[in-house]
Design a protein that fits this description.
alpha+beta, Glutaredoxin, 2 domains, 6 helices, Thioredoxin domain-containing protein, protein-disulfide reductase activity
């Protein structure tokens, strides 16, 4: 009976180690994928950079509680074509609406996700509202 109990404990421990290993690998993959775009978080700095580089500014308004925002981070913003187009043509800004309600109000980003393209003076050029697949986003940027 004791050998049976030891066998069960060994199996349970082995399963726990396996689950933890899989979780760690998955977490590392997600972190790697979402870090391919370097987002800024200061509009004034982005406007300065846009003036110097003669680019427009792409602002991604999001919230941690917004599931579609997370989906875009994992799907659209990791797509190689989207990453290339965004990084080549825009100064990139990511704004948490809960931490920056003033900027969210200025650009009326009340429905999430909302992406706003602005010129180097902060004037709105284009607005994209709602979840976008990589293909949909590419057709608009």
């Amino acid at each position: 009976m004791r050998e049976y109990f030891i066998g069960i404990v060994v199996i349970i421990i082995s399963l726990l180690v396996l689950v933890l290993s899989i979780h760690t690998l998955t977490s590392n993959e997600i972190e790697t994928n979402t870090s391919s775009i370097q987002w800024g978080n200061d509009l004034n700095q982005a406007m300065e950079e846009a003036k110097k580089s003669n680019k427009t500014i792409f602002i991604d308004f999001y919230a941690d509680w917004c599931s579609y925002c997370g989906d875009m981070d994992e799907e659209a913003f990791t797509d190689p074509q989207v990453v290339e187009r965004l990084t080549q043509n825009y100064v990139l800004l990511k704004v948490d609406v809960d931490e920056n309600p003033g900027l969210s109000s200025k650009y009326t980003a009340y429905s999430l996700p909302t992406m706003v393209i602005v010129d180097s003076s902060g004037n709105e050029i284009k607005r994209i509202i709602g979840y976008q697949t990589p293909e949909q986003l590419l057709s608009q940027i």
